[in-house]
Automatic annotation (TrEMBL):
Chain coiled-coil ranges: none
Membrane topology: Multi-pass membrane protein
Taxonomic source organism: Chlorobium phaeovibrioides (strain DSM 265 / 1930)
Keywords from the UniProt entry: Cell membrane, Membrane, Transmembrane, Transmembrane helix
InterPro entries per the UniProt record, alphabetical: ABC3_permease_C, MacB_PCD, Macrolide_Exporter_MacB
Designated name of the protein: FtsX-like permease family protein
GO CC entries: plasma membrane
Amino acid sequence: MQFREIIRQALYSLGANRLRSALTVMGVAVGVFSIIGVMTALEAVNKSVETGLTSLGANTFQIQKYPATVFGSGHRRNQYINRQDITYPQALVFRKTMEGKASTIGFMLSSQANQAKYADRTTNPDVVLTGGDENFSASNGYPIEKGRNLTTNDIRYATNAAVIGSELAATLFTQGENPLNHSIRVGGEVYRVSGIFAKKGAAFGQSQDNFLLIPITRYLNHVKESGSINITVEASSRKTYSRTLDHAVGSMRITRGLTIREPNDFEIRTNESLIDSFRDIERAISTGAFIISFMALLTAGVGIMNIMLVSVTERTKEIGIRKSIGAPQNSILRQFLLEALILSLAGGLIGAAAGTATGNLVALQFNLPPIFPLLWITISMAVCSAIGIGFGLFPAWKAANLNPVEALKGK
């Protein structure tokens, strides 16, 4: 029998039991969907992490109260919550002790979900209000596009000057309108726009341009009296990075009054620590996805074997007739193997398509271009082929070795 005829017979046999075939296909699709969806989403997040790390320069690190991510029990989370805030006076002492040991040291303190108003225009309540010093722009990689940066006098006298992000400027002011020296209102406070930051783009799916920067002293006096300061330290070069980091840890321990036996009660956030945190999350999610996929595909493989055994039983007379008129064993073997392979590959293709689409929904949230996980799709198709052949081999062998006389009797 020609291979094309074997394919036609296999498709006809599967089509004769559409519901049973569809349920078997969906079992394979679920397993492939889980792994493709997760891996596509992780690839999207991974690219977002790489983009987001540009917010910390190669020679920059941050000192803050909380780690970048917190895993573990409630006791461990309480450990961070119960830490003393890094206060503004402490930050000033830290800067004094680090004189000559770092290129720039900037302070910042932020609050989320603010609404900005100008004239009759109002933003969504998603504006970030940041209190910072004159070094915020340099230490956090925010160049000024128009106007001026905050000055030491703005910080000393807690002026109402504000430098706004490009997205906030585009929302509040019409095209061609110059925002400089105009007053905007946020949370009952009025700020005069002194400058506009250059566009920075999104990181981790969040805009980095929908915010306004005001003097940290005004923030503490008029917005929020308490809060933990984030300190951004920039080393003068990559060669001095490690030395600057060591000096910063020592200086912060002295500033916080820690003894030699007490552990650090603050966190150092570096590009490496962010990558390590993401890798921990990635490994945990990947492991879970592999376990789910393995169980789903194993169940689907058993389903394929079951449907093929049932098919052999139902088609005993058909097999007997074919063998009685000279059909070779390998022809029958190939047909039943092909039916199992078609079921498995059909499920794999459906799962891969659905998983890729779902993963790209995550990529869309991170403002990333569409992702096509060719490697994982190829691996999934290879695994589906192995499942189809592996679990279809016994039913196919059983069909090929039926005694034609007994098969014609329907036994």
